[in-house]
Amino acid sequence: MTARTVDRPSGASRTGTTEPGDRPAERPGPEAPPPQLRSRHLLGIAGLTADEITLILDTAVAMKEIGGRAIKKVPTLRGRTVVNLFFEPSTRTRTSFEIAEKRLSADTLSIATATSSVTKGETLVDTVRNLEAMSPDMIVLRHSSSGAPELLSRICRSSVINAGDGMHEHPTQALLDAFTIREHKGRLSGLKVAIVGDLLHSRVLRSNVQLLKTMGAEVWACGPATLIPAGIERLGARPTTSVDEAVEGADVVMLLRIQHERMHAHFIPSVREYFALFGMTPERLRRASSEVIVMHPGPMNRGVEIDSEVADGPYSVILEQVSNGVAVRMAVLYLLAGREEGTLE
Ligand code: CP
Q1: CA-CA distances (angstroms) from residue 74 to 257, 323, 336?
Q2: Is the CB of 298 under 6 A from ligand 1?
Q3: Residue 72 Cα, ligand 1 centroid: separation in angstroms?
Q4: Each residue of 73-82: pLDDT tens digit?
Q5: 157-175 b/e with 16+ CB inside 10 Å = b?
Q6: Is the shortest distance between the CB of 208 and ligand 1 below 6 Å?
Q7: Could you tell me the pTM of the whole model?
C-alpha cells in the first residue's frame, strides 16, 4: 500500500504513555514515534487502555481549538473517504461525525437505510462489501444488532468505527462524556458519577461504566430493579434502586432515556410512576455536590427521566456534550487514520 501521510493539526497530542517517575529529559524527541491506538478499529471502550483513552481525550483538546477558529477546516484527512452507515435513527452522532469529517477535509458520504438497497433485502455484509468495492478508508456504523461493528471489522479493509450497536457499546459517546467531565472537573479519577435511568437497554451505560472505571471514577448505576442488567457489578458499577443513594454527593449525574423502542415487555408500570420515583427533579438534585454537572446523551424525554428545570438549569452541560462530540470524533478519525498508515506526520 502506498503510504499516505496525515498532517498533524497544530497542538495535537504527543502525550500518552509516560510512567510515573519518568524524567522530563526523557520526553519523546523528534525521532520518537507518536503515540497511537493499538487497533485500526474503534469497536468499543472494552479493550482500550487508560493511556489510549487519555490519548483520545488529549487529542480532542487540540481538535476543539480547530472548531473555535474562523475557518474551521484543516487538510488532515484530505483524500480519505469516510462512509457513515446508519441503520438506526440518529441526530447527534451522525451529524457530529459528518461535521468532524468535513473539518478534517475528508470526502464523506452518509447512507441511511431507508434510501439504501437494505430495504430490498440486501444483508449488512453484502451492503458493506459493495461499499468497500468503492475503496472507502473508514466506515462509521450504527446498527441495532449488538456486535455488528465487530462482524464488519473481521471482513473490512477499512477502519470500522462503532457509532452505537444495539445494547452493547457507544464508545464515542462515552469518550465525549469523559471529555466534558474532564473539562469541568479537571480529572476523572476519584469522582462519584451517578447514572440513572433505563440501564438495561443502554449501550451508553455499558461504554461509560467501562471508561469511567478504567479512569478511576466511582460509578453508581440506578434504576428500577426491572431495568438493572444482571452482572452490572462485574463491569464495576454499584447498582441501586435508590435515587437518593446514587445522587448523594455525586460530582456528575447522568440521566438515561427510557428506551420504549427496545422494550418488549412491561418494565415500568407507567411513565408517570417512573417520573415520580426516578425522574431527576431540582429537589432530588439537591443531594448532589454543590458543583454537580448534569448530563444526558440525548434524545431526552422531558418529564420522564428529567425535569425541564434540570435539563435547562444551571448545572446542565447537555448541549456542551453535543458540541464536544465533534472534537472527540475528529480525534478518533485522526488517530485511526494515523494508526492505519503508521505515521502521523
Ligand atoms: N447520543 C446519541 O447517540 O444520540 P443520537 O441517537 O441522536 O445519535
Answers
A1: 36, 18, 17
A2: yes
A3: 23
A4: 999 999 999 9
A5: ebbbbbbbbbbbbbbbbbb
A6: no
A7: 0.90
